[in-house]
Design a protein that fits this description.
Shape: elongated
Strand content: 5-15%
GO molecular function, one term: DNA binding
Protein name: Helix-turn-helix domain-containing protein
Number of helices: 12
Pfam families: DUF5753, HTH_31
Structural class: alpha+beta
Organism: Amycolatopsis acidicola
CATH class of the largest domain: Alpha Beta
InterPro entries: Cro/C1-type_HTH (IPR001387), DUF5753 (IPR043917), Lambda_DNA-bd_dom_sf (IPR010982)
Number of strands: 10
Order of helices and strands: EEHHHHHEHHEHHEHEEEEHEH
Low-confidence stretches: 1-22
CATH architecture of the largest domain: 2-Layer Sandwich
Distance between the termini: 65 Å
Largest sheet: 8 strands, mixed
Number of domains: 2
Amino acid sequence: MWPGTGQLGGRTLPRNTPLHTSSVQEARVTLGALLRELRGNAQFTVRQLAAILEWPHSKISKIENGRQTPTADDIRAWTHATHAEDHADDLVARLQNLEFQHAEWQRQLAPGLKHHQLKLTEINARTRFFRVFEPTFMPGLLQTAEYARFRFEQTGRVFGQRRDIDDAVQTRIQRQEILYRPEKRFHFVLTEATLRYRLCPPAVMLGQLDRLLSLSTLPNVKLGIIGFDVEYDVAPAHGFWLLDDERVMIETFSAELNLAQPQEIELYGRIFERLATATGTSYSGEARNLITRAAAHWST
């Protein structure tokens, strides 16, 4: 922990300042700035520290400027070389916060697709209120096994991870058991496009729409669909999951983002509310009519 009030090189940092301040990049820059100050305190130039660590000097510059994320071993080597070992644990903890926030798919999927599904099962078990917005595909908790298989196969094509698709599908379907727990509440908001995108064969999509109709009748599940004719005042830029008031999960092509800052959670809560209550967002019978019309489209 930084000594005293948390001063390092004349700049005050409150104790336990969260690393993910407003974005992943800002967090990486913050970590790099702290490491730069340790180098400065030790009165080493970039090239001198690189020589001590036997690293390319470009690696030092990239880390300090937030263009490369150091590993825990990098941080411990850096603090040892700059005679600042007492800061190592704090900096490693900050790195772990960054890795929590920005979990790259290549690293997450290395143990297999099933492993990630098991991690989500643990997170879901702790969550009581789910608010989910998806503009492109069916949320995992609502998927049929056939639809889930196509989603995992698409992931496999991108990341070359196909060895345990059957196990991943089975684990995802087992996760859906929480939909039937009365103490859990779910509010899903989908765009009408999710009912129409050609992400799987028509027969698979018809089964998926039938499943959606069935789940929409559960007493603890609220399903809203934003029709094509709705005028948005907040663009449906990307999907996200709000888990209680503790975490926002966002999937990008490269990583799963986990946001835990109160202001970020509050922001996504407001965005979800605007999408969920937009004039023309359909619920109950109207939502089921949209699903039925989409099924007719897939049947032609």
